[in-house]
Amino acid sequence: STTKSGLGHRPWDPGARPPAIVAVVPGHQRILVVSTTAAEAEVRRLRAGLGRDPLVLTAPTAEAGQLVRALGVEPQVEVLLAPVKFPQVDRGHRLDELVRDRALRDRFRDVVVVTDPATATLLLRVLAPDQLPTSATVTLVGLPRGDRPVDYRRAGVSGVVLGLAAGVAEPLAPLLVLPAAAALVGLGLLLPEPWRHVGRELLLAATISLAVLLVVVASSARFPGGW
């Protein structure tokens, strides 16, 4: 079964690496560490709960390959995840660096790590040191990630288009209806975390559209002298 836990109670050191937490929390990227001993029912539940286009890191073993095929996702094979009889002293830290490096390339994708039980345990001891050891075959870890960045180019283009559309629609509707509608929708989208970046883009687009609208109105026949 998938394990979940709360935040640890250790004091946070600003100079240290942000700790992983075992929970589904807004603003955290999901890392699922899966043992090759996972049962078929657990794999089905895992597949049903994955987000769009997950990144799957797998050990180069037949057991890991069989489990990944059941997930129906194209994996990325990592030699470092292969089981070893005599692990080096820094193996856990190397595994942690591997997973974090792959996860940070796209903080908004689910990451699935499929490996043998011993390697999975070693990885979790470093990746999620605040989690108590368990015998679960699927462990969920959350890595802090922050909000999705705003696409300023898209917001700028949308603002220009919205401002021009408001200027053209002016005889049929009040000038500020379209910018105001965009701003209201943007404010509403600031509440749900997955759509927060879209809300910020809409607010920025609404602001830009007002500037464009002022230029359109000032350049119209209503103001023959322009500015």
Describe this entry's structure for a reader.
- With 227 residues, this protein is α/β, with parallel strands linked by helices.
- It has two domains: 2-6 and 15-144, Phosphoglycerate mutase-like (Rossmann fold, 3-Layer(aba) Sandwich); 152-218.
- The protein contains seven helices and six strands.
- It has a six-stranded mixed beta sheet.
- Helix 2 (62-71) links the parallel strand 3 and strand 4.
- Helix 6 (177-189) runs antiparallel to helix 7 (196-218).
- The longest helix is centred in the C-terminal third of the chain and has 23 residues, at 196-218.
- The protein starts with a strand and ends in a 9-residue tail after the last helix.
SSE blueprint and pairings:
Elements: E1 2-3, E2 28-35, H1 40-49, E3 55-58, H2 62-71, E4 76-77, H3 91-104, E5 111-115, H4 117-127, E6 138-144, H5 152-168, H6 177-189, H7 196-218
Quick overview of this protein structure:
By secondary structure, the chain is α/β, with parallel strands linked by helices.
Key traits:
alpha/beta; 43% helix; Rossmann fold; elongated; 227 residues; 7 helices; disordered N terminus; 6-stranded mixed β-sheet
